[in-house]
Structure formats: structure tokens, C-alpha cells
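The instructor's notes for this session suggest beginning with a concrete chain rather than abstract definitions. Hand out the sequence below and ask the class to guess, before any prediction is shown, which regions might be ordered.
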Amino acid sequence: MSAPASAAPGGLAGHLDGFVRAVREAGIPVGISQAVDAAEILTVVDLLDREQLRHGLAAVLLQRASQRPAYDTLFDLWWPLSDRPRAGSASGGEDDEDPGADDGSTLDLPDGHGDADERDLAQRMREQLARLLRDGDDEALRRFARQAVEQLGRAPASPSGQSYFGYRVMRALSPDTLVAQLLAGLLADGDRGGLAEQVARQTVRERLAAFRSAVDAEVRRRAAAERGRDRVAKSAVRPLAEQVDFLRAQQSDLAELRRAVAPLARRLAVRLSARRRMGRQGRLDFRKTVRASLGTGGVPVVTHHRPRKVHKPELVVLCDVSGSVAGFSHFTLMLTQALREHFSGVRAFAFVDATDEVTRFFRPGADVTAAISRIGREADVVAFDGHSDYGNALEVFADRWPTAVGPKTSLLVLGDGRTNYRQPGLPVLADLVHRSRSAHWLNPEPRRLWGSGDSAADRYGEVIDMVECRNATQLADFVTTL
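After discussion, reveal the predicted structure:
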């Protein structure tokens, strides 16, 4: 989808089109109307004000705050500091200016020649950085970061071209060691130890983070000029939270995953109980039907039924909590906690090579991280060697809780189906599926790996609905198509 050429000069419109495509490829949904609005933004903002352009495009292209980090990374690649649109420029492309060119606000810094000169250069730049951090001028700090990468981030030339690295800048300037000096400049005498010091420390942390971000953005810009924006974007842009594989999720991703899981749990509850609500009428009410037929000569033209009582669905969740799916088990237990709000009877069972009920750890308001720790300490989920044994775990579940799964129960199995070459327990699983109202298995591994090595996922898929569920996006697709 191209932005209208009338919104701006043709070169700038084409540049915007490339940016919008990159945002869409990063997983941020951008429709036609949003692309048109982005083109309109170019006609109403000051193109010389880079931050105004950044926020204007973000206002029409983004729907959630979690999309902002990916957007900012792409914006810095497509609208870099040295290449921002200028008055009278027909293009914002990467080849419009020399990467080392400046616009007149260059800081007065020396060139380094030799080890002694480089140490002197680093010391003088370090002093300049301290002044900029104390003053809090974001624009000057970004321009300083650009020069710091040019002067201190350059690695020895290689046959593939010139390379720059942010860690070389940070090692030379050591900005974290400036904290005491910055606090002394920001605090007046007598302000130590109070609220003013806390505010000053937070300000210093934010300015240091802004400098690191500016250095990283400049390194990416130079890499994009050397290798192309698209190649750099693939490695520089972190996946959105809903695209992160559960098996690889980091601690920083879990908070966003919790926010994504809650609405999906509500939708899953609705879908799993849909069949109960589809039949609005219960069994035939013979007496009312006969009475009504008296008015039509004994012909039951209209039938009457007893009202059908709709109950909240019951759910049994079987979670694999072995080490091979540690990241996924954290997600599955978050899902279990969220589902408890929508099902009348949620029973959660965890297993490794044995099974234990862990419903008691998921009371309303319970912290998922604390619940997982308690499962590891208190739940009886290991019987032998602590390696996954689906066959034994299923048998223990069927023997100890024979009435847990019944005709009113939805069964949800969560695991990768890797049995360590042990018996998979297919007959037990088939019996559970037969007794349940509905049964589904969410597998965090890619479909292409099912059946490889010790995976019995393909065999389990013959007796239960096996669904690939590696991230929140696939979970949403499963809920939508259920």
C-alpha cells in the first residue's frame, strides 16, 4: 500500500511507503486507512522536527504501547538523525547525505591519532558527555552519540567494510561511572538522602538510558547504510510480546504475556462453552405441547420445551512442567490462573513423570511466579528420575482422579509430547478424550518437529485435537477457530 503521492513529494512518499511496509512486517497491523493517515501526517507536522514526526506517525500507526519499542527501532532506521527531511528535500532516503555529514551543530571534538591521542580524545569526550547529561539536552545528546560512534566505535576495517560497535563507545566513555559527578551537579547542598536525591538518581538513570539508546540507534543506522535497512531490521527489531515463542520468553516478556493471556482466556471460556448455549431448548415438554394442540384440533403445530439450564463450563488442565518446556509451563499456568475466573470448576494438574493436582496453588489473586515456585517445592510431580514420562503421568492421573473428567468437562492438555522414548499412554489418553465433552492439546513445538526424535505428538494427534501453540498469536488463532 503506497501513500498518496499528493501528500508529499514523490521521493518522500516512497520512503514513507517503505517505512510502513517495515512496520507491518514487524508484526504491527497497519491497514490502508492508517497508511493514508500516515501520509497526511507528513503534510501537517514540521518535517524538520524529527521527534514531532516520530510521535505523529506513531499516533496513527500504533494501537498498543507494547508496539512502541519495535516502532522506535524502525523509525530510527528509516528516519535517522543525519537523514531527516530537510526543507526543500525531495527524499528522505539513506543516500541523500553522507553518513558523516552534519547540519552545523557539530560538537567541537578532536580527531584521535595513536593510543595517547585516543585516550585524550576519550577523556575529553567523557567530560563533554558529563556536561550534556547534566544539562539534559536530548537533541545535543543524540548528536554527541553520533559523534562518539564515529570517533570511538569504529572497529578495524575488514574486507566486508567498516564496522561500528556500541560496546566500544561504552567501554571508552564508561558513562555509568559518572553517576556521582552528575548527582553532585544536580543536587544542592543539604539535599542528600531525601526525596530530591531519589528524583535526581532517577533522572540520571533515564538520561544514561537515553544515551545508550542513542548510541545503539546510531550503530544500527551505520549498519543499515552498509548492509541495507531490511537486513538490519530483521535482527534489530525484537518480536512483539504476542510473537515471542513461549519456550524462549524472557522475564521482560512475561508481564506483557500476562496482559495478552487474560482476554484470550475469556474468549477461550466462551468458545469452550458455546455448544451449551447453542441449544436454547431443553427436552420436550409433553404436557404443554398437548395443551397447546387443543387449539389446533389436536395437531401439535407448536411444540414446547423445558428451559435448558446453562452452566459455566468445567475445565481440567494437564500441564507439563518439566525442564524442557519451562518457559511454556510458565505461560500455561498463567493461562490456568486466568481461566479460573471463567469456569465454574477449574482443576489444574501438573506432571513430569508423575501427576499431582495443583489447583490449590491458584487461588484468586495468587501470584503465578510464587505458584510455580510452590509447585516445584511441594507438588508430587516427580516419581523416578525427573524426566518426562507422559505414559506414567497419564496413568497416575486416571488412577488417582478417575472422576475428574466427565461428560461436562473440557480437557486441555499443555505440553510438547516428548516422552523420552517411554510409553506414550495412548489408550489412557483416548479414554479421557472419549469421556470428556471436548479435548484439545496445545503444543509449543513447531509442527514440523512433531514425531521427530522422542516426540509422540503425531501419535497423540490421532486421538486428540493437537494444535501448534508457540506464541500468543497462535493461541488467539486457536481460540478464534475453535
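Then share the key points. The mean pLDDT is 78. The CA atoms of residues 12 and 98 lie 18 Å apart.
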